[in-house]
Amino acid sequence: MTDDSSTTAGVHVPDSKLAREATELVRDSTSELIYDHSRRVYFFGSLQGRNRDLSFDPELLYIAAMFHDLGLNEPFHASGRRFEVDSADEARRFLQAHQVPEDSIRRVWTAIALHTTPGIPEFMEPEVALVTAGVEYDVLGIGYHDIDEADRAAVVALHPRPGFKQRILEAFTDGIRPKPQTTFGNVKADVLAHYVPGFERGDFVRTILDSPWAE
Of 117, 9, 115, which Cα lies nearest the Cα of 64? Predict the structure, then answer.
């Protein structure tokens, strides 16, 4: 059995045509690092959904998890948009091509676009909340002990994370270095501040004080 239809830690990967094609697209168009991370986001988001007793659409959660970092890829480096929006737009195009209902597309787009914006997704639809929960678990370790050690180990055995901390930071840096202005007001400014010499953060206070308004 391939990982496309596996059940790991009690979480089943949807075996629909849509999910299989999403898996193939992401696996073929991004790095092993991002592919494995995206799969773990689905598993960890699903497990957190179970912990929180949330009812969610596994297929939509899977699509959102798989596409959430696609915008870090080189073709999007000159887009001028936040990588989250590029990722969300790619997911929307994919879902529209498969004639998925607009409400489902909206949920996937929102889940991806907001996955680096803490404090909001947790109050939205379960798919939106759980993409962020999966990302926060895998990248930041938020809620680390909420998931059983055996389940966590099973997911990591399926999708290992060798050197993940440094490698994901490198991927973030490479993906957003060409468009530093997109980090204004969001967590990715921290990445460029650490890894790009000469980077200067946008300053919200200075933006207000230096605006063309007299007062």
Answer: 115
DSSP sequence for 4-49: GG-EETTEEPP-SHHHHHHHHHHHHHS-HHHHHHHHHHHHHHHHHH
Q: Residue 115, class by beta-carbon neighbours within 10 Å (0-12 exposed, 13-18 middle, 19+ buried)? A: buried
154-169 in b/e form (b: 16+ CB < 10 A) is bbbebbeeeebeebbe
At residue 7, what is the residue type? T
Dist. CA 15–CA 59, nearest whole Å: 9
Selection from 153, 192, 171 nearest residue 68 by Cα: 171
How deeply is 15 buried, as exposed, middle or buried, from its count of CB atoms within 10 A (0-12, 13-18, 19+)? exposed
Quick: pLDDT tens for 80-98: 999 999 999 999 999 999 9
The half-sphere exposure of 63 on its side-chain side, counting CA atoms within 13 A, is: 29
By three-state DSSP, how is residue 12 classified?
Answer: strand
Q: What is the pLDDT of residues 149-196, one digit of tens each?
A: 999 999 999 999 999 999 999 999 999 999 999 999 999 999 999 999
Helix (H/G/I), strand (E/B), else coil: 8 = strand
Helix (H, G, I), strand (E, B) or coil at 11: strand
Q: What is the spatial distance between Cα 134 and Cα 130, in angstroms, rounded to a whole number?
A: 6
As a whole number of Å, the CA-based R_g of the chain is 18
Residue 68 DSSP code? T
